[in-house]
Every structure is written in C-alpha cells, then in structure tokens.
Design brief:
Elongation Factor Tu (Ef-tu), domain 3; OB fold (Dihydrolipoamide Acetyltransferase, E2P); six-stranded antiparallel barrel; four-stranded antiparallel sheet; 22 strands; rod-shaped
Length: 359
C-alpha cells in the first residue's frame, strides 16, 4: 500500500513539473513598437569643475610684525588702496639694539664731519684752504647727515610703525592692491606676520578677487577633448542653483593631460559671459555642457534600440507576426537618442524588446 502511495505522489509531482515547464515555455513575450520621429539633436561634451574668479590676489606683507587691527570683514567690497590690516612692529631685541646703535654711530660721525666742515669753512673764508677742499668736506658732512636721518627713520619705524618724510606718511598699513571682494582671511588680530622677501614667500594675509569676472574651471575626458575648440558655446549648471542656466564660452583647453584614478582628463576653462541673474560664489561646484555639433529635424530613435553585430548596426522591425533585422547607418548621438542616416524613415516602427529579467 505504501508503495502505491509513493508512486502516486511521484506522478503528481512529475505532472506538476511538466505543467509549469510548458506553461512558462509557451508564455508569450510582449514587445513594444517605437516609431522613428523627427527632432533636433545635439552632441555635447560634459565637463565637471567649480566656479572660480578669473583673477585672485593673495595679499602679503613686506614688513614684519604683529597684526594689530583687521579693518575689514570677509565678503566686504573694497576699493584699491583701502586699508586692510594694521601691522604693529615687533622687532627682536637684537634688531632693536642694532637699529639704535646704528643711529648713534651715524650721529657721532655726522657731528664730527659737521665740526670739520665748519672749521674748513672758516679757513676758506680766511683764504687758507682751497674751495675744492672745503666742498669735499661739505659733501662728506651732507652724506653723513643723510645716513643719520635714514638710521633715525628706521628706528622710529621699528618703535612706532609710522613716520612722515617728504610730506608723505609712511606707515605699516597693508592696503588693497585691487578693487574687489574679500574672499578669505588667513590671519587675525595678534597673529605674527612674516614679510615677503626674495628668500621667503611671506605670510598670506587674505585673498581678494573681482567677482565680476568669473571662470568655470574643470576637466573633460580625453574622448571628448579632441572635438573641442576655443570659442565653443557652453551651458553651465550650478549644483547649488539647479534652476540657473549660465551661458559661457570655452576660453582655454590645456595641452597636457592629467591622471585621476584610471581616467585621463584635460583641464578646461570656460569664461562666464553672463550670470543670468544668479548670485555666483567662488567654489560653487558645477557641470558644463559644451555643444560640439547639432542637427535639426532629423530622423531619431532611442539609442537603446540599436543592436551591434560584426561591426554593423541593426534594428528590429515587425514583419507580420515575425521580426526581422534591418541594417542602419547612424549620425549624432546625445546619449539617449541617435540620428538615423539610412535604413529607416520617419514613422517606421522599431521593435523594443522588454528588459531581461535578472534571475
């Protein structure tokens, strides 16, 4: 009895297996038809980068000291010549001693030569020395007087940070070299300042830029760079301003590539001609679409319908209940649609297979 029950269960399972096998095997695969239609298409190159000012100035000091006062706030618009920082002199003890001793020595030398010149002048009036001897002594005295004045002014500048000479104020104020916007501040009140010299870069105090002249600085893939030329039109989209479409023009394509991971990229600059009413800030991340070529009112189909076999391109078209392949020639592609040059005409139907199920 158990043997017959086991055989019955096995038969039921076998019949169930064959039922599902044939049911799935004969399931009709639904296909969709897409019509070739006329439209416009553009071939574009994509660049990724940031918005940067065309000229950014790093402000540095030519005098050492301590930041005594900051006369601006980040984001302020400043004019050329406007004061930015007040630097308080902070000489080392050795520098201060050397400056004072130099001034004292110059004063001693000046007083001695002054006495010599006064004596020579009296002797010249008594016709005891020649005019040339008197003038030589006078020249030495004037030179010593100038050295004393220079030493005194250097000492005063070290002590006070401000002097007045030749009706002009000489002080330790750091002034703006250009008119623009203060982008960043690198030092604050009380910070030490190392001067800019031929032997050291000096402390960066702040950075300024003219925000009326902006650039998109980014990179483009090596596949597209050969199609680009300077002067091409571009459209820039700002990540933080998704509604803004900023027009631009390719200004510079760098001749040397750089590696980023496994990609080979070229730097590209795009000059922004009009902010289109958007408030642009330095450092905004952005993408730029550069128009390479365009076609108007051409026959288009979705590029996903194109099949590649043996170096040729095909599409599937309906023929009664069956489907046949038709060879085509293509033109421009924008990544979604592709131009049909030959093999299809407007209104022709193309078979779109359903996506394969992932098992």
């Amino acid at each position: 009895m158990k043997k017959w029950i086991f055989r019955g269960i096995s038969l039921v399972l076998l019949l169930t297996f064959f039922y599902f096998l044939f049911a799935c095997g004969t399931k009709k695969v639904e296909t969709k038809l897409v019509a070739a239609a006329r439209g416009d298409i553009q071939e574009k190159a994509l660049a990724v980068g940031t918005i940067e000012p065309e000229k950014e100035i790093k402000v540095k000091s030519t005098i050492p000291g301590i930041v005594a006062e900051v006369l601006f706030k980040v984001g302020d618009a400043v004019k050329a010549g406007a004061p930015l920082f007040k630097i308080s002199p902070n000489p080392t003890p050795l520098e201060y001693v050397e400056a004072r001793r130099s001034m004292e020595l110059a004063e001693v030398t000046m007083q001695k030569l002054k006495s010599d010149w006064t004596r020579q002048l009296e002797l010249y009036k008594a016709n005891l020395v020649s005019r040339s001897e008197m003038e030589t002594t006078e020249g030495l005295y004037k030179e010593a007087e100038l050295r004393h004045r220079t030493s005194s002014e250097r000492l005063e500048l070290l002590e006070k940070g401000r002097i007045r000479m030749s009706n002009r104020d000489i002080d330790s104020l750091i002034k703006s070299p250009i008119s623009g916007i203060v982008l960043s501040q690198s030092v604050f009140q009380g910070d030490p300042v190392v001067p800019l010299t031929n032997f050291q870069p000096g402390t960066e105090l702040c950075s300024l830029a003219d925000m009326a002249s902006l650039l998109f600085k980014g990179t483009v893939d090596e596949i597209d760079v050969g199609k680009l030329v300077e002067g091409m039109e571009a459209e820039i989209q700002i990540g933080a301003l998704p509604e803004a479409k900023i027009p631009g023009r390719v200004d510079r394509i760098f001749p040397k590539a750089k590696k980023e991971g496994n990609a080979t990229l070229f730097d590209i600059w795009i000059l922004i001609s009009d902010a289109a009413g958007a408030t642009l800030r330095a450092g905004f991340s952005a993408t730029a679409s550069i128009q390479i070529r365009s076609r108007t009112q051409v026959v288009l189909i979705p590029e996903r319908l194109v099949l590649f076999e043996g170096g040729k391109k095909f599409v599937e078209v309906p023929e009664g209940e069956a489907v046949r392949k038709v060879e085509i020639r293509t033109g421009l592609s924008d990544g979604l649609n592709i131009e049909i040059l030959d093999g299809l005409k407007e209104g022709d139907k193309v078979v779109e297979r359903p996506p394969r199920e992932i098992k």
